[in-house]
Specification:
Oligomer: single chain
Radius of gyration: 18 Å
Number of strands: 4
CATH topology of the largest domain: Glutathione S-transferase Yfyf (Class Pi), Chain A, domain 2
Distance between the termini: 15 Å
Bound molecules: glutathione
Number of domains: 2
Number of helices: 10
CATH architecture of the largest domain: Up-down Bundle
């Protein structure tokens, strides 16, 4: 999702292939044995198969969003994305899928609550920033906004009422603005899972 958002905002045209994770096509596994989505294959055949790397590649071609952040320190932006990708995502996964962690003995109700509250600590950091500016690093969106909001969206969807009751009104408003954003609506249009020989779907 965030890779598509970055490609869209950078104006990079690309062919889209929807994947069913339980039935990954051979063409995908051939170019990316790591077997996770997203995967981007460039016209020279090279492959980028980490969402953040795709974002960096896309926005390095047209870096208005990275530039916007530079006034506030690119390091701070990448540090926040790192905390999102490592810590927040870890707590999110355990809050969202407690049953996946049961076998490893590290999930029970107490732990699930722990992960909810630990995730909220990160939301509190976002709330502090969004109290001051409309986006995380200023009055315009930057890469950090797009890198992070899809994970906050996932968090909000686990228990929407509970999320809405949190006192993070600026985070809620920021998320709602992204969900209503034309770019998000555009990239979320679903296509049938890709089969060789299908009509080509493009990002634009
Ligand atoms: N760090 C990777 C994580 C990618 C990832 O884990 N993607 C999930 C879907 S959101 C996936 O493809 N899982 C493989 C599977 O479920 O088979 C990235 O951001 O690109």
């Amino acid at each position: 999702m965030r890779a598509r958002m970055a490609l869209y905002h950078a104006g990079v045209q690309c062919e889209l292939r929807e994947i069913v994770l339980k039935d990954k096509p051979a063409a995908m596994l051939e170019i990316s044995p790591k077997a996770t989505v997203p995967v981007l294959q460039l016209t020279d055949g090279s492959v980028i198969d980490e969402s953040l790397d795709i974002m960096n590649w896309a926005l390095s071609e047209d870096d208005a969003w990275r530039h916007a952040a530079s006034d506030h320190g690119k390091d701070a932006m990448f540090d926040l994305i790192h905390v999102n990708d490592v810590d927040f995502k870890m707590h999110l996964d355990r809050y969202k899928y407690p049953q996946r962690f049961v076998d490893r003995g590290d999930s029970n109700d107490v732990h699930d609550e722990h992960h909810f509250h630990a995730a909220c600590d990160f939301l509190a950091q976002l709330e502090d920033k969004l109290k001051k500016t409309a986006y995380l690093f200023g009055d315009k969106p930057c890469m950090a906004d797009v890198a992070i909001f899809p994970f906050v969206r996932q968090f909000s969807a686990v228990d929407r009422l509970r999320f809405n009751r949190l006192s993070f009104t600026h985070v809620q408003d920021w998320l709602n603005r992204w969900l209503a954003d034309q770019s998000f609506q555009h990239i979320m249009v679903k296509h049938q899972p890709w089969l060789s020989g299908d009509k080509t779907h493009y990002l634009y």
